Amino acid sequence: MRNALIASLLFVLTASAAMGDDPQINLPLTKAAWTYSADEGKTFTLARQELRPLAVAAVAARAEFQIDDPVAYGGMFLAADPNLGAAPSYTINGKAVAGPLDGMMYQSIPLDCAKYLVKGKNVLVASGKYTNKLDAAAAVVVAPRLEILPPAAVAIQSGPVLGHVGADYFTVTCRTNIPAEVTAEAGVGKERCKATSSRGYIHRLKVPLPPGIIKFQYTVTARVGAASATAGPFEVTVPGRNPEGFRFVIAGDSRSNPGGWKNVAAASLKSAPEVFFFTGDTVSSGPLDELWDSEFFAPAKELFATVPLYSVIGNHEDHAPIYAEMIYSPGGDGRSMNWSQTIGGALFIGIDGAEDWKAGSKNIQWLQGVLDASKEKFVFFLTHYPAWSSGPHGRGEQPAFECRDVIMPLLAKYKVQAMVAGHDHDYERSEPPADKGVMCIVAGGAGAPLYKKSGRAAAGNPYSKLFIAGSLHYCVFDLTGETCTMKVYDLQGKLLDEKTFVARKL
Questions:
Q1: What does the alpha-carbon distance between residue 363 and residue 355 come to, in Å, rounded to a whole number?
Q2: What is d(CA 32, CA 18) in angstroms, rounded to the nearest whole number?
Q3: Which residues, in sequence order, are CB contacts of 73 under 8 Å at separation 6+?
Q4: What are the φ and ψ backbone dihedral angles of 240, each rounded to 5 degrees?
Q5: 3-class DSSP state of 153
Q6: Is the pLDDT of residue 378 over 70?
Q7: Average pLDDT of span 126-150
Q8: What share of the chain is helix, strand, coil (3-state, %, to 5)?
Q9: Does 475 score more than 80 pLDDT?
Q10: What does the alpha-carbon distance between residue 295 and residue 323 come to, in Å, rounded to a whole number?
Q11: How far apart, in whole angstroms, are the C-alpha atoms of residue 467 and residue 473?
Q12: Which of 233, 273, 299, 421 is the most exposed, having the fewest neighbouring CB atoms within 10 Å of its CB?
């Protein structure tokens, strides 16, 4: 969509700036040519062909272009020169270029025109170390590219993604392709509730709802001046309000297989859950920004727009900041990795299993307090790292050891029904004795490469009751009164496992 709407400024060694094809997008960009420096940017007199004889690694490139009215533009993208190595640096008019979130790596860096551009002459400088062989072909390799978008190009790039829902509100996130204000508006009959974010790329909204409602519709609208883009309306069932029962789905480990994940998400949605729980490993590498759309948000677009997402973080997210910004948790300001919430008569607890969970730690004290205050009939504990597994991770990692030695006995003390995790890409149900913990379910089949049972499974997990390899899957839970039944399905609808939990006696 972006390429269809942009007016692009494409710099190569001898070319002038290209104008957009859309006659209504009349960017006043004049001719621009790149010059190069091989002495730490002190001069910009070299042609690209001259660089090879100098046998230098560190180079800088500079281009000038004219802007008549920077206020008229919405946003821009800066795409890297592939010859400038893995970590080039850029400045526009002397200001260091940085993406919207520190710690993220962008293939094409989103930038705010208002922050960087000035009326008249603008200067873009790129510097880095050339990693490719500079031969005759280098003269035609694309140099850094700047794409400038008008307000009419505004679009919702990621989401909307429903977050946790409270007694009288819901949360939703999205991000836009250019800086915009976003309004989420919910409708219940003739009543309308809304919330608006400040101008930016990533938008986190907490929208009020009338108490006691069972269903509502909402839209999300991004605005830049007079231009706007709307997603929706979407219909949402408020979790836990149906007196006949509460249905939720748990799945995890979707990373690196968007096709498989799309199918798991679609099957999960078809089962009509009120909440979708995810056990971590959303993308192959969390800091790579482009993966969040291609591997996670886009394949599950309909699911995330209509069913609240509750998630625990995995190792592949690498604590990338976009995780906390786009997945609105019930903890703290919505960015906490450790959270708890009661929904439909069940208490759900989610943690970052890679944190410190040693005996006496602040995290364990928090968990003890949550469990000590709990009065719900059912408690489900979610973490990415399973205490017991017959997969390759079952040989033991620090999070697993702390789960076994510290967390599991605590869960057993409070008669928690089950720990549900991912990490190993298979399905497994383990049932340790009461002095060792509670049922441990591994549900790691949402798309990631599937695992076989480890050759050391018997020693690593003596409590395994059922292990299934080679099947993408999802777990459907139905809670009614004094029982909660779990059914696990593959993508063909085959029932892989079934288990009924009974209400705990306090």
A1: 8
A2: 9
A3: 27, 67, 113, 117, 148, 149, 150, 151
A4: 80, 10
A5: helix
A6: yes
A7: 62
A8: 20, 35, 45
A9: yes
A10: 13
A11: 13
A12: 233
Count CB-CB contacts under 10 A for residue 227.
15
* Predicted local confidence at residue 455, as pLDDT: 82
Going 388 to 391 to 393 to 395, the CA torsion angle's sign is positive
Each residue of 171-209: pLDDT tens digit? 999 999 999 999 999 988 778 899 999 999 999 999 999
The model's confidence at residue 458, banded by pLDDT at 50, 70 and 90, is confident
**310: left (phi > 0), else alpha (psi -120 to 50), else beta?**
beta
Distance CA 495, CA 37 (A): 65
Q: pLDDT value at position 130?
A: 61
- Measured CA to CA, the distance from residue 475 to residue 496 in angstroms comes to 9
Pairing of strands 473-480, 483-490: antiparallel
Separation between Cα atoms, residue 176 and residue 180, nearest integer Å: 7
Q: Is the dihedral of CA 107, 112, 116, 119 positive or negative?
A: positive
Strands (E), 324-408: 339-343, 346-350, 378-382
For residue range 245-295, what is the model confidence (pLDDT) as tens digits?
A: 999 999 999 999 999 999 999 999 999 999 999 999 999 999 999 999 999
For the record, the structure tokens of 61 come out as 């490139």
pLDDT of residue 25: 32
Exposure string for 102-114, b = 16+ CB within 10 A, e = fewer: eebbbebbbbbbe
Q: In this structure, which amino acid lies at residue 182?
A: V
Question: Does the pLDDT value for residue 26 go beyond 60?
Answer: no
Query: What tokens appear for 213 in the block?
Result: 């409602």
Q: Return the beta strands (E) in 104-226 as ranges.
A: 108-111, 120-129, 145-149, 156-165, 169-188, 191-196, 200-208, 215-224
C-alpha–C-alpha distance, residues 275 and 320, integer Å: 24
- Residue of 327, 275, 273, 269 lying closest to 302 (CA atoms): 269
Residue 22 has pLDDT above 50, yes or no: no
For residues 301 and 410, the answer to whether their CB atoms sit within 8 Å is no
DSSP sequence for 200-243: EEEEEEEEE--TT-SEEEEEEEEEETTEEEEEEEEEEEPTT--T
What is the number of H-type helices and E-type strands within the chain? 11, 28
